[in-house]
Structures are given as structure tokens and as C-alpha cells.
From TrEMBL:
Keywords assigned: Hydrolase, Signal
Recorded superkingdom: Bacteria
EC code: 3.6.3.14
Protein name, per record: ATP synthase subunit E
Signal peptide: 1-17
Length: 96
């Protein structure tokens, strides 16, 4: 189910021009926490186990995680990885 949420989030992202405002209910601290969780999960989230690590580390509900992945993808910080997955392309993950 987590992979399906990730896939839906990535499919919902076409082309959006920066700057991208934060979605309602998402703070800069939420974005930082999510980025850190993805980095600790290995920069790529392509399996249920990896998604579970991010979910557990953040404590965010699936809707909030979906909003965060959509937001960061619109900003160009997430790129599609394996089918249904994504890779963080900023911070310490940029060189990974």
C-alpha cells in the first residue's frame, strides 16, 4: 500500500514551475524531518520496508507523507527511482 501511495504521488506530478509554496498543513520543519528520514533510509524509497522506515521516523500520516512527496517532487528534489519509488536528489543524497 505504501508503494501505491508513492506511485500515485509521483504520477500526480507533471510539470510545475518553482517556486513551490508549502502545502497547507506542512511546515518547513516537516519538510526537514522528512528529508532527514529519507536520508537515513538510504536516499531511495522504493520498497514497503523503506517507506515504513520513513513513516516510522516521521510519525506522519499517509496523507501528510503524500503531500510532502508531491511538494518535494514539484521542487525537483525527488526523482523517480524504481517503479513506484523515489530518490531524494538534494543534501547528502545529491552525491549518493
Amino acid at each position: 500500500m505504501r508503494r501505491a501511495l508513492i506511485a500515485l504521488s509521483l504520477l500526480a506530478l507533471a510539470a510545475c514551475a518553482p517556486p513551490v509554496p508549502l502545502p497547507a498543513g506542512i511546515s518547513a520543519a516537516d519538510v526537514a524531518l522528512f528529508r532527514g528520514a529519507v536520508e537515513r533510509a538510504g536516499c531511495t524509497v522504493a520498497t514497503d520496508a523503506q517507506a515504513g522506515k520513513v513513516e516510522q521516523a516521521t510519525g506522519f500520516a499517509p496523507d501528510k507523507l503524500r503531500s510532502l512527496t508531491e511538494h518535494l517532487a514539484r521542487r525537483g528534489e525527488l526523482v523517480q527511482a524504481a517503479p513506484g519509488g523515489f530518490r531524494l536528489s538534494t543534501g547528502s543524497c545529491a552525491a549518493a
